[in-house]
Amino acid sequence: MSSIEQLERRLERERQARKAAEAIAEEKTREIYDANVRLQQLNNRLEELVGQRTTELAAARDEAIRASKAKSDFLASMSHELRTPLNAIIGYSEILLEESEDLVPSELRPDLEKIRGAGRNLLGLINDILDLSKIEAGKMDVFLESFDVVALLDEVGATVEPLIAKNGNALTVNCEAQLGMLRSDPIKVRQILLNLLSNAAKFTTKGRITLTARRRGLSGGDGVEFEVTDKGIGMTPDQLTGLFRPFSQADASTTRKYGGTGLGLAITRHFCRMLGGDVTVDSTFGEGSTFKVTVPDIDSDTALAAPQPVWEHRVVGTVLVVEDGREATKSLAGPLTQEGYRVITAGGGADGLRLAREGTPDAIILDVVNPEFDGWEILRLLKTDTDLCDIPVILVTVLDDRDMGFALGAAEHLTKPINPKELLRLLARVQRPEVAPDVLVVDDDQSTRAMLRRMLVKEGWRVREAANGAEGLEQLARAVPAVMLLDLMMPEVDGFEVLRAVRQAAAWRDIPVVIVTSKDLTRDELEWLRGHAMDVFQKGAYSRAELIATVRAMVDAARVASSRMVPPGRGGG
């Protein structure tokens, strides 16, 4: 075979190979094209599915937001509807308990205590559920102010004492020296401590519960560490798991035996973390538990903006107690301090006369038996002093010497042992102006108006009522009251509109206004109210004594202001 033939054959083989390669390349190109088409189809389908899923998620998110808002609205409405009748239940039970000595058989008093206790427990449950809902919705606000830690601990101890004593327990409060002021949210700190102490009291019987407070250096600054220790049932490691979850308790048997919803500790941890701190627990089964809470001192430069209280509770008046016995002085001063009076004490006649001249008290309580010189001589010196003679004096004696006391100028007379209620009644009477103060109650709930009227009339005040905001404005136009108690949620003209109209009118601008509402207030609403009202009370959450003390302080302040408009001299002549 010639070389030409060999070359032709080689070329033919190469053509065949190239043709086969082209066929393979074409097939592969077609496969790649088909794969790309399928891939594009899959990509389009994936984008369609992603878009569909995104739309579904957006719809689900919107639905969740609507459901959350509906839940919040429902809980807010529910709390309002429940707080109003609870306010009446708690208020009337307190009135009946106060009057039970005269009007109610003694065997019914425990039943009244149960009614009041059940009302307060139900109110606490409502508040816990509402707080948890607001926390979950991110709507729980922090209201910052500087407060005295020791004063807060005293208040907490006094509040929780009946619950501590219920199971035969005793409370010890240990305060480190120089605790000083703390800048945080006092309402939340108070609730944290009450939750922990209530928890300790529930799981401890005939034991000691200790509340300790100390200054601590915390990360980022200074703060206070609170510690609540009990000698109760304690918890196992398994029981500690999930202790701070909502609606969770140690176990089912604990819930059956001790009751409760398991909300208190969950809210406590939320509050602690909202304030920049935390809560930890150390517990041994059968021996007890220790909860530690850290609350940082929040720097005002870095703190969240928060409304500050504009109005403070005023001192009702100043009372000078002249009594040489320490225990007797405490028994007289205690009820007065709780009612909002500033109390000055003197152990002898000379000291009493000096303090009377220096402090110019609104009233003097004088024990006739005195080691320096007898009370009759002190009374005579008071009534012959032109600067002191108009100060009302209430005599305290062992014997019934009222005629002699009145002859020397005493305003009232009490025989030992002293009944605190009678003391407060007489003190209010000697301080009361001749014309009873006029208090206007504006509330659309008839039972609330009736309850408030009963409380106020008992203090000797005249009461007018308005069933809604429009009627309230009409009553204001007829006569300006000394104080107005105002509900917020009312038909037609609500409390906000009434308060706005009051502050805009020159004739009404200075009327002291106390808000008494069952509305769950937002941060903005509370901030606005604190700038326009003197105090805000949540229906069912206040005691009769707190409300009366606040109104009395405002009445007395108005009386002092009006007395400055008459010629100098006590009583204006």
Description of the molecule:
The protein is of the alpha/beta class and 573 residues long. The chain is built from 17 helices and 17 strands. The strands form four sheets. The chain has a five-stranded mixed sheet with strand order 2-4-5-7-6, with helices on one face. Strand 4 and strand 5 form a beta hairpin. Helix 9 packs parallel to helix 10. It starts with a helix and ends in a 10-residue tail after the last helix. The relative contact order is 0.07.
Concise overview:
This protein has 573 residues and is an alpha/beta fold.
Number of strands: 17
Shape: elongated
- Order of strands, main sheet, comes to 2-4-5-7-6
Mean pLDDT, rounded to whole units?
79
Task: Name some characteristics of this structure.
single chain, 573 residues, alpha/beta, five-stranded mixed β-sheet, five-stranded parallel β-sheet, 52% helix, disordered C terminus
